[in-house]
Amino acid sequence: MRRRLVEGVADTHTATDPARNISPGELLPIGRRFRIVLVLGFLAALGPLTIDMYLPSLPTITADLHASAAAVQLTLTGTLAGLAFGQLLIGPLSDAVGRRLPLLAGIAVHVLASVLCVFAPNLTVLGTLRVLQGLGAAAAAVIAMAMVRDLFDGNAAARLFSRLVLVIGVAPILAPTVGGLVLGRTSWRGVFVVLAGAGVAIMVAAALVLPETLPRAARRNEGVRGTARDYGRLFTDRVYVGLVLVAGLAMAALFAYVSGSSYVFQDEYGLSEQQFALVFAGGAVGLIGATQFNVRLLRRWTPQRILGRSLLAGLGFGLVLLATAATGFGGLAGVLVPLWLVLTTVGLAMPNAPALALSRHGEAAGTAAALLGAVQFGVGAAAAPVVGMLGVGALAMAVVVFGGMLAATVVCFVVVRPHRLPVEPPEPAVALAH
């Protein structure tokens, strides 16, 4: 079925040689493939952009709306919850009606919610609108992943996820910096004006560049019962569920950093909003660099091996972070260095866990991507307020970061057992938009 796949690019799939295990997307012309990958990256970046751009303004929102730090952090939790729940709905919908229509409708919801956030009179309204923002961004996140699965398999998918994270990584680098600059010129409400503009630009790019990657013959029009059956089948796959949990727990470590970092570095260590943006960007550089190094590692090692080794390394760095945060050893550098190293290992795990998980269920890629994304952002949503409840200090952040890495490593080696998974040999000859 997938070898005659894509409406609008179907002609490129007729020459696929199954014996060479070339993914359909790799037969696209390099220029067109590059444009598709770039826009898919922008889609996947919409969620992180929505989350990260207003991080420097959290203390300002706390003061302006007369709320507690924990209450303001719940607006971040609301966004993550919207991202998680929205994917569970939109993933199966995209399996039934195709990818483009739910994608464009979801981004439109995000733009509308961003505009309304500008006029939010209190924290309750802002939190509600942040949930709607998350729901809209969920369409971009889950459909980007489903399109990757429509077009790519195995190592090729892992390479593409690495490339997508490169584009996604621009969001954590630029978003807090842009947020800090906006705060320097206007209030925190201006951040949502910028988010609305970014949503419009991404929607236009998606409409112009992305084809429909799910042909009518491959759509699953079985209604609620069929969706329930697909989810039930996914939950019976031990390895898939384990990989989804690994991805979610690694995301929990990442979002513990995201939710707690502005308070730790601005309140505890006295950094300005602009200095915090630079520190945050440093962590993003490590994350991005690791995802791109992953492309080179895939030429020598399998995704299974890289995933296991990166989690073990992340667990070790997380333990160092916990020790320095608890003792105060090394001051700011004592927290930053092991924290950045943990983020680097997360950058190695992030492309490989989803690629391995989605490779097991190509017949329901939207639903499989939805569950994966929902768990990632759902666990992240649960981790964010835990940091606030523990005290929003360096130690609280370190406890949750270490806990996420510990749980991810245990699930990987006890449930997934990566050393027992079928191995696809590395294929250095295949390039993806290098």
Automatic annotation (TrEMBL):
<keyword id="KW-0472">Membrane</keyword>
<dbReference type="GO" id="GO:0005886">
    <property type="term" value="C:plasma membrane"/>
</dbReference>
<keyword id="KW-0812">Transmembrane</keyword>
<feature type="transmembrane region" description="Helical">
    <location>
        <begin position="370"/>
        <end position="388"/>
    </location>
</feature>
<dbReference type="Pfam" id="PF07690">
    <property type="entry name" value="MFS_1"/>
</dbReference>
<protein>
    <submittedName>
        <fullName>Bcr/CflA family drug resistance efflux transporter</fullName>
    </submittedName>
</protein>
<dbReference type="InterPro" id="IPR011701">
    <property type="entry name" value="MFS"/>
</dbReference>
<keyword id="KW-1003">Cell membrane</keyword>
<feature type="transmembrane region" description="Helical">
    <location>
        <begin position="339"/>
        <end position="358"/>
    </location>
</feature>
<comment type="similarity">
    <text>Belongs to the major facilitator superfamily. Bcr/CmlA family.</text>
</comment>
<feature type="transmembrane region" description="Helical">
    <location>
        <begin position="310"/>
        <end position="333"/>
    </location>
</feature>
<dbReference type="InterPro" id="IPR005829">
    <property type="entry name" value="Sugar_transporter_CS"/>
</dbReference>
<feature type="transmembrane region" description="Helical">
    <location>
        <begin position="394"/>
        <end position="416"/>
    </location>
</feature>
<feature type="transmembrane region" description="Helical">
    <location>
        <begin position="67"/>
        <end position="91"/>
    </location>
</feature>
<dbReference type="InterPro" id="IPR004812">
    <property type="entry name" value="Efflux_drug-R_Bcr/CmlA"/>
</dbReference>
<feature type="transmembrane region" description="Helical">
    <location>
        <begin position="164"/>
        <end position="184"/>
    </location>
</feature>
<feature type="transmembrane region" description="Helical">
    <location>
        <begin position="36"/>
        <end position="55"/>
    </location>
</feature>
<dbReference type="InterPro" id="IPR020846">
    <property type="entry name" value="MFS_dom"/>
</dbReference>
<feature type="transmembrane region" description="Helical">
    <location>
        <begin position="190"/>
        <end position="210"/>
    </location>
</feature>
<dbReference type="GO" id="GO:0042910">
    <property type="term" value="F:xenobiotic transmembrane transporter activity"/>
</dbReference>
<feature type="transmembrane region" description="Helical">
    <location>
        <begin position="278"/>
        <end position="298"/>
    </location>
</feature>
<feature type="transmembrane region" description="Helical">
    <location>
        <begin position="131"/>
        <end position="152"/>
    </location>
</feature>
<feature type="domain" description="Major facilitator superfamily (MFS) profile">
    <location>
        <begin position="33"/>
        <end position="421"/>
    </location>
</feature>
<dbReference type="GO" id="GO:1990961">
    <property type="term" value="P:xenobiotic detoxification by transmembrane export across the plasma membrane"/>
</dbReference>
<feature type="transmembrane region" description="Helical">
    <location>
        <begin position="103"/>
        <end position="125"/>
    </location>
</feature>
<keyword id="KW-0813">Transport</keyword>
<dbReference type="InterPro" id="IPR036259">
    <property type="entry name" value="MFS_trans_sf"/>
</dbReference>
<keyword id="KW-1133">Transmembrane helix</keyword>
<feature type="transmembrane region" description="Helical">
    <location>
        <begin position="239"/>
        <end position="258"/>
    </location>
</feature>
